[in-house]
Design goal:
350 residues, alpha/beta, nine-stranded mixed sheet, 17 strands, elongated
């Protein structure tokens, strides 16, 4: 039986890291992809890391990442989790709730800590809801509480997918923070797009003392490709149905989260790759692609293939899916554990 395999192109990861690390301190988010191969490569690049839970901390500890390179980013974590992280040496924490910060201060020596206060995007883009981040008023309350207790305080923000395309959104955030939070020590920026020049120009304009980039997808998405295989081919009422080993419940979570349209290729007998498209055209046949979880919601999308290439749709043939590095393994359903894939490190395209 053909096994699914992930191909990890370390050179792509290195290129992306070097590109963004010139703008500030890079903090890689483990919830994007916590595979050991990825973490180990980032360790060699001297990256810092963002964690959301205790299991993330353990993964970093297992390969020798020091607590000083770790930031706890989960503002909804319970106080016991924060206490455990503090006991294990973590000193960089993010808050958006005053009560949680006060409880934290009861056991933590704030003078040893670095504290980031998460600002809500609703203060900048008022018509876009977000359950994360504090109001300006609550941010002030937390910052005032920390005066005289913690000397390393900053403000963080995250550009959620519903406002990424809003005009001048990075400028709006940076300008708002510069206007209202003049005496902070640093800023944390999350959710940035791949437009390096816009970020560069804005950071150059505002000149913050310290910039920390919370990034995950931009580092790993294009660095990892998947080889999976066809397990069923059906034709019902003139509709072609193709079922692959991997689907939304065992790897393609980004289809649910971001409605991502993956670059999917089918292998030919002479080792060439034919790309399936999302647009119809002359002499093209619609192919509905499903994952192999046996769940009706495991649908990857409607793609198109030229009629003359239909002979490549057979059980056992390979599909190559590019740019699957973000969220691929982090959200496997339990009944799909047997389909977890092996990483193969490469330095070229597959």
């Amino acid at each position: 039986m053909n096994e699914s395999k992930l191909f990890f192109n370390k050179s792509v990861l290195r290129q992306q890291y070097e590109k963004f690390s010139g703008l500030g301190n890079t903090y890689y988010s483990l919830k994007t992809n916590s595979n050991k191969s990825v973490i180990a490569e980032l360790k060699q690049l001297n990256s810092n890391f963002l964690i959301s839970n205790i299991s993330h901390l353990k993964k970093l500890q297992d390969i020798g990442i020091k607590p000083k390179r770790i930031c706890m980013i989960n503002v909804l974590a319970d106080i016991q989790t924060l206490k455990n992280l503090y006991k294990n040496g973590v000193r960089f924490f993010t808050f958006d709730n005053f009560n949680t910060l006060k409880k934290f201060s009861m056991f933590a020596n704030l003078s040893e800590c670095k504290i980031s206060i998460r600002l809500s995007q609703m203060e900048i883009s008022k018509y876009n809801l977000s359950h994360l981040g504090a109001s300006k008023k609550d941010c002030f309350e937390m910052i005032n509480f920390l005066k005289g207790k913690c000397s390393n305080v900053g403000v963080s923000f995250y550009i959620q997918k519903n406002i990424k395309r809003e005009k001048d959104i990075i400028f709006k955030f940076l300008n708002y923070i510069k206007t209202h939070f003049a005496n902070i020590n640093f800023i944390n920026i999350g959710g940035i797009s791949n437009d390096f020049n816009i970020l560069y120009d804005n950071l150059k304009q505002f000149k913050f003392e310290e910039v920390n980039l919370e990034i995950g997808r931009l580092l790993v998405e294009e660095a990892i490709s998947l080889k999976t295989n066809i397990i069923r081919v059906k034709k019902v009422n003139d509709e072609f149905l193709l079922i692959t080993k991997n689907g939304v419940f065992n790897g393609f979570f980004d289809k649910i989260y971001y409605n991502k349209k993956y670059d999917i290729y089918i292998a030919t007998s002479n080792n060439k790759l034919i790309k399936l498209t999302y647009k119809s055209g002359p002499n093209k046949i619609a192919i509905h692609i499903f994952g192999g979880s046996s769940d009706s919601g495991d649908y990857l999308g409607k793609l198109y293939l030229k009629k003359e290439d239909l002979s490549n749709l057979y059980v056992g043939n390979n599909l190559i899916v590019k740019n699957v590095g973000a969220y691929f393994e982090e959200f496997f359903m339990n009944y799909c554990d047997d389909n977890k894939t092996k990483y193969i490190e490469v330095d070229d395209e597959i």
